[in-house]
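Page header: ASSEMBLY MODEL / two components / 527 residues total.
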Amino acid sequence: MDIKKKLGIGVLTGALGLSLVGGGTWAAFNDVEETQNLFVTGILDLQIGEQTTIDFQLDNLKPGDHWSETLVLRNGGTLDINQILTTIEVGGWNNEDALDLNTKLWPGAGDNELEDFLAQFEVSISRDGTHLVTTTLDQLNGITNAEMTGTDAATAALNPGDEISYEVSFLFKEVDETFDNSRFQVQNKYQDEEAEISMKFEATQMPGEERGNDMDFGIESNGDLNSLVEGQNK
Amino acid sequence: MKLKKKLMMGSMSAAMGLSLVAGGTYAAFNDVEDTSAAFAAGTLEMDLEQVAEGKPFTFEVVNLKPGDTMTRDIKFVNKGSLAIKEVLMAIENMQFASIGTVLGDEPQAEMMFPGSGDSWFDNVNTDPLAFLDQFRVSIITLGAESGGDYQKELLGQDDNVTLKDFYLASDSLNSKDASSSQINAARSKVYDAINHKNYIKGHRLNVTTETNNGWEGLPVDPTDPDVLRLKIEFIDDQDKDEYGEYEQNIYQANGAMLTFSFEATQWEGQEITEDDLGENGYIETNEQANNGE
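Prediction written out in full:
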C-alpha cells in the first residue's frame, strides 16, 4: 500500500469519527419520515381442466372410428396471458406388419413410416364453435411453440378468469384402396400400430410496462402483507 | 393444484422474476401445461381352419369320375382384435389343362397315355368353361357348425348351378376369357338360385351368418367361428354320342385349378365414447358385432 492511499484512509476515518461524535450529542428536536413500499407479484397460471383436456387413451381402433375431445384453456392467475404457444410431438410408434403383407404381397408392402400412420388420422379443430382448421396428425407433429390464440405481442389472449374452448375431432380415415391386383386393403399396413401425442401449452406474460400505484397499502390491507399475497391466489 | 403448492410456486416465480428482470429480459413469467394422448389401431385377421383333424378344407382331388362328390367344411376363425362383419367369397383365378394340350401330337400321346387311341381322345375337351360346367355346386351352407335357425342353406341340389356359373358370376381380380353377355347370364342365374339374396354382396357371397345380433359375422366377443360347407359333385350325365360313348368322355384327363378368396371385412367406423371403453382405453365394442349396438 503506497503512502497516498494510506493518507486517504486516515482522512476518511477522521470524518467518520467526527460524525459519530456528532451522534452522541444532545438531540432534542428531530423528524423522521418513512415510506411503505410494496411489491407483490402476480400469478401467471394457465389451467387445463381434468375433464376438458386431450388425454385420451384408445386401443383397438379401426378405420372409420372417430372421437371428440374438448380442450379448455383457462387463465387461472391474476396476470393477463399474452400468447399460448403450442408444441406437439408424437412418439412411441413402431412399424408393424400384423398381416405379414411383406410375405403375402411383396417386400415392403406392409411397411410404413410414422408420418404415413399419422396421415390416417384427420383432425378437425374448432374454437368456441367456429371451425378453424381440418388437417391430419402428421401435419401437427413437430409443431414447436406455435401461437394458437391469434394475438400479437401487445394483446392479451386470455384475461384472468377467461377461457378458450377448443373442440378437437379425430377420425381414423377409411380409405377404400387395395394393393395392385390384390384384395388386401392398403390401410392393412397400419394394423396394430400405435402412437402417443404429447402436447405442451406455454402461456406467456404481457410485456413489462411502467406502472403507477394500484392501491393504498395501509388503507386497503391494514398493513397485512400475507393477506395481500394470498389474495393473488384467486 | 393445491393452495400451498401454488403459493410456493408464486414465491419461486417471484424470485426467478427478479433475477431475470435484472438480466434485462421481460418475458419472465410463464406457465406450461402438458397433455398426453395415446391411440392404437387394432388388428383384423382371419384364419381358415379344419373343422377336425384329417378333414381338409381345400379341394385337392385327382382321378375323378362322374358321380363323385366332394364335401368340404371351411372354418373361419377370427384371429384379430376387431370383429369381422362379413367374409366375402370369390373365385379369383382359374387355370385349366387338358391331356390334349399337355401331350400334343397323337403318336407321343399314344405312348404315354394308353387310352388315347379311343375316339374321345380326338375330341378331348380343351374348353375350360365346358369342363367347369361338369361340376355342380350342390350345397352351400352357412353356419354349418350350429344348425337350427342359424344355419342357412344358400344353394341346394336342385338349383343346378355349376362351377362355371360361379366362376363367371364371381367378381374376380383376374380377367376372364368370356364375353360380358356370358358373364351377365351367369350372374343372373346365380342370383336367381341363391336362397337368401341378402348374402349376395356385389358379385361375391357373404359366407358368414347374418343374424342381426351379437353373433353376426365373426365377432371376437363372443367367440363365434363360422363353418361354410361346400359340396361339389362331378355331374353324372348319362347322355351318349352317336358311337355309344358317353358325351362326358371328352372330359377325361382334364384338370382345373381354382383360387377361392375369402375377404374378411371390418364393421363401419363408430363414434368412440366412454361407453365403448374398457380398461386402459381398450375399445371393447370393436370386438363385438355391429360395434356392440
